[in-house]
From TrEMBL:
InterPro entries according to UniProt: Clathrin_H-chain/VPS_repeat, CNH_dom, Vam6/VPS39/TRAP1, VPS39/TGF_beta_rcpt-assoc_1, VPS39/TGFA1_Znf
Residues making up the signal peptide according to the UniProt record: none
UniProt GO cellular component terms: cytoplasm; membrane
BP GO terms, sorted: autophagy; endosomal vesicle fusion; intracellular protein transport
Domain CNH: 23-297
Name of the protein in question: Transforming growth factor-beta receptor-associated protein 1-like protein
Keywords associated with the record: Receptor
Entry keyword annotation includes NADP: no
One Pfam match: zf-Vps39_C
UniProt CHCR repeat ranges: 564-729
Length: 859
């Protein structure tokens, strides 16, 4: 695809070269800075000064001022000119002879008596290896030898340094460092003149077509290959770039990165080195010469000279972007890095990426656009500004100038296509969601979050609530009307809450629950409000909404008191007494709150336990008085009462006992209360004789003896046995119940006491299970005690053994042996022994122990 990369600008008109001589032709050219040298077929060298300027239309132009021309005194054409600016010399090939002239006067200068004759071609080493700044290296091809001579040109002499033989006669050459790229008669080759190593490249017929050997960079050459290809080869003979497909009749070629410029009989073609595509074609008849000098491409016909002026890369890139050729523009931008200062390039590259992103954005290529925006560090507000009303009204953002795109807004982009509008909005949602977590968005987080909220609300996106529930920078003044407009009242409440306006949030949610506003976002909004208030530290809000919540649902509403966390400080804590006082008119909620205090939080306060027990009792008594009550309701209420009466030890037992004493239907509860008062005989009488519930009586004995010693438990069961065997009650003794009790709990009873109580007429087989159990328990207790005694004796024996072992062998004390502490001798046999068997005086050990104790005390 075409792009305008060069302008063809005239430099030297034919009249300035030829004058009135028709047969004069340009044979060679050389350019050094502003100085242009032409060699003609009549053996003249013409020296021009080129002045570059810009026309009124902004186009480049050149003025050529002829400074001098010099006849070399021969009748042969000047075939080659090369400037040695460091020496102010011009190397000339004319009549197969190398001569050196002064660049200013064009007068010949001496070469130390050395003349190179029989020369067909030569080239300058643009990557010299000598390191001498006042010396020019060159390679020369001799017509008489199959060899290349390496020469050094000084200001006043010419020296042949080395001669390297070649397998065939060279036709053309180029030199870089130690490497010579040669076009031989039948092939190209790379030759290292330092080591004489060579590398054949590919065949080429020099007689059929003129060879091209052009150095384009460090150790890299451009060659004309068969089939109309421009091949690249490095010093190792490897092509690291794809070939360029140019004309079969190419006369000359040059490189102006990133382009390869080729000249044929009728055109100048420009190919990209990056993608090898033809970018520009310029008609040019009678083309003869094409060379590049320090980035300046000079083109000549036989009569005139032109300069191919490269258009600025930035303009080329913008032309590509204008044609929506994004990939080519980016490729060219990346290639331009070598020619642009680093800081300027980074600015340019970011802008090109952003422009490319907007082009692909307009083409709905969202993945590519997102990647270019990300790499180009796009100010996301540039993108948001395309969507009407998304930026906050307080935003001071103005679009980049010059603009990054040609779009006015989203309406201009979509032309009313609703499907496209939705696709663009979905892309922006995705992009803003990613951008939020990037540091580059921190400077304008309000713009991003506000725009994202508006998009979420407008499209009904599920992430709206997640945004508001997380850390965000949504502007209340912009977002509140927008949420209200799109009927997102619950989200509006969240926004109020995030901005510290909990009262406004609750007002909004209460209206939704009451049906004044329609929003189905949270079907469980009532439960949400309760949960919100249960964690709210503003107690005024809690009390303000408590009555409404309890009137709507006491069971759920009371959770604003029961679900409050305990980890808060004084702020946000409720006084239970205040809550209980407030809940007096909400009986169900009061019961639930007291259950929370007593059963869940396990508060050890008598008034809470008593209050809950009284409420339970009132509930049971109330249900019993209602004719329509179901058995399930009454059973559940009594179960709660019975469980509290049994498990709690903090309520006022006498108060509850007085409350229930007249109820003949609550005998189990009365029995429990008698148990709490240690009135076990009354309790057992109720269970055995009034309720006639033997299992309940046995369970009562087990319950009442929990956390008591064995004697207490045994005494309780003996009381129950006595109740069973009491002959003075109506119906007489309960023999079966007594036998069952003895047989099931044989290990609890004292067998001797039991045998004294039992009537003499009872048979032993009837008591066999009891007697066996009692005997087994007695034997087990005896064996257990014996084992315990044996273990104690063994432990005592082990301690005695350890003590004897620690005391060790005999300690020798004599009048000649001294104490280890005071070093005085022993006057009596009594002594103490230090670890290791060292004897010391008893009074010394006592004194040492006393000193150690005092030291520890002071420490």
């Amino acid at each position: 695809m075409s792009v305008k990369a060069f302008e063809l600008v005239p430099a030297v008109e034919r009249e300035q070269v030829m004058g009135d001589k028709v047969r004069i032709n340009i044979e060679c050219i050389e350019c050094c800075g502003k100085h242009l040298y032409l060699g003609t077929n009549d053996c003249f060298i013409h020296h021009f000064l080129l002045e570059e300027h810009t026309t009124a239309k902004g186009m480049p132009a050149y003025n050529a001022q002829k400074l001098l021309h010099k006849f070399l005194g021969l009748k042969k054409p000047v075939l080659e000119l090369k400037a040695a600016s460091a020496l102010e010399r011009l190397i000339v090939l004319c009549d197969s002879t190398i001569t050196v002239v002064d660049m200013v006067t064009l007068e010949p200068v001496p070469t130390g008596g050395n003349k190179l004759k029989g020369v067909t071609a030569f080239c300058i080493n643009e990557n010299p290896v000598t390191g001498d700044p006042f010396c020019v290296e060159m390679a020369v091809v001799s017509a008489r030898k199959r060899a290349v001579q390496i020469c050094l040109v000084y200001e006043d002499r010419l020296q042949v340094l080395k001669e390297v033989t070649t397998p065939e006669q060279p036709c053309a050459l180029s030199l870089d460092g130690y490497f010579i790229c040669l076009a031989l008669s039948t092939q190209y080759m790379i030759l290292n003149y330092s080591t004489a190593a060579s590398q054949d490249l590919f065949p080429y017929d020099c007689e059929e077509r003129k060879p091209i050997v052009k150095r384009i960079g460090r150790e890299e050459f451009l060659l004309a290959a068969p089939g109309g290809l421009g091949m690249f080869a490095n010093a190792e003979g490897i092509s690291q770039r794809a070939p360029v497909s140019w004309s079969e009749n190419v006369i000359a070629a040059s490189v102006c990165f990133p382009y390869v410029v080729a000249l044929d009989e009728g055109f100048v073609t420009v190919h990209s080195m990056l993608d090898q595509q033809l970018k520009q074609t310029l008609p040019f008849r009678d083309g003869h010469l094409l060379q590049d000098f320090e980035g300046k491409v000079v083109l000549a016909s036989t009569k005139a000279v032109y300069i191919l002026v490269p258009l600025p890369l930035e303009r080329q890139i913008q032309d590509l972007l204008a044609s929506h050729r994004v990939e080519e523009a980016l490729t060219l931008t990346e290639a331009a890095q070598r020619n642009i200062p680093k800081e300027k390039y980074q600015i340019l590259y970011k802008r090109i990426l952003q422009q490319a992103g907007f082009i692909q954005f307009g083409q709905l290529k969202f993945l590519e656009a997102k990647e270019h925006f990300r790499k180009g560090l796009l100010d996301v507000r540039e993108l948001i500004s395309l969507y009407p009303l998304l930026l906050p009204s307080s935003s001071t953002f103005t679009r980049c100038h010059p603009p990054l795109h040609e779009f006015a807004d989203l309406n201009h982009l979509t032309q009313g296509d609703k499907e496209k509008v939705q696709r663009f909005k979905r892309f922006l949602i995705s992009y803003l969601h990613e951008v939020r977590s990037v540091e580059s968005a921190n400077g304008f987080r309000e713009d991003v979050d506000t725009a994202l909220l508006k998009l979420y609300a407008e499209t009904g996106h599920d992430s709206l609530l997640d945004l508001l529930a997380s850390d965000n920078a949504c502007l209340l003044t912009d977002c509140a009307p927008w949420l209200e407009k799109h009927l997102k009242y619950f989200a509006l409440g969240l926004l109020y809450h995030y901005n510290g306006q909990d009262s406004a949030a609750l007002q909004m949610w209460v209206k939704i629950v009451k049906g004044d506003l329609q929003d189905s976002t949270r079907p469980d909004l009532f439960e949400y409000v309760v949960d919100f208030l249960s964690f709210c530290s503003n107690l005024d809000l809690v009390w303000r909404h408590a009555d409404w919540l309890l009137q709507k649902d006491q069971k759920i509403g009371v959770q604003i008191f029961t679900k409050r966390p305990d980890s808060e400080g004084k702020r946000g804590q409720l006084n239970p007494d205040d809550v209980i006082g407030y809940l007096q008119k909400h009986n169900k909620a009061l019961v639930l709150y007291l259950e929370h205090l007593v059963l869940e939080k396990r508060l050890k306060k008598e008034k809470y336990h008593t209050h809950l027990a009284v409420l339970y009792a009132d509930r049971v008594l109330g249900l019993m008085s209602r004719p329509t009550v179901t058995e399930e309701q009454l059973s559940a209420a009594r179960q709660k009462l019975q469980q509290l009466l049994k498990e709690s030890n903090l309520y006022r037992v006498q108060l509850l006992s007085n409350k229930l004493q007249d109820s003949e239907l609550l005998l189990p509860e009365r029995a429990t209360l008698h148990g709490k008062l240690e009135e076990h005989d009354k309790a057992l009488h109720i269970l055995v004789h009034q309720l006639k519930d033997s299992p309940a009586a046995e369970e009562y004995c087990s319950w009442a003896s929990v956390n008591q010693d064995q004697a207490y438990r045994q005494n309780l069961f003996h009381q129950l046995l006595s109740v069973y065997l009491d002959p003075d009650v109506p119906g007489g003794p309960q023999t079966v119940a007594a036998v069952d009790l003895l047989n099931r709990h044989a290990n609890v009873f004292d067998a001797v006491r039991v045998l004294d109580l039992l009537p003499e007429e009872w048979s032993l087989p009837l008591l066999r299970p009891f007697l066996c159990g009692a005997l087994r328990s007695s034997v087990h207790a005896r064996c257990t005690s014996r084992v315990a005694v044996g273990l104690a004796r063994a432990e005592n024996l082990q301690l005695k053994h350890d003590r004897l072992k620690y005391r060790g062998g005999p300690i020798l004390v004599s009048e000649k042996k001294g104490c280890q502490l005071c070093h005085n001798t022993f006057s009596e046999p009594d002594c103490a022994c230090l670890p290791g068997g060292k004897p010391v005086h008893i009074h010394c050990v006592t004194k040492k122990a006393l000193i150690s104790s005092i030291s520890e005390l002071f420490t």
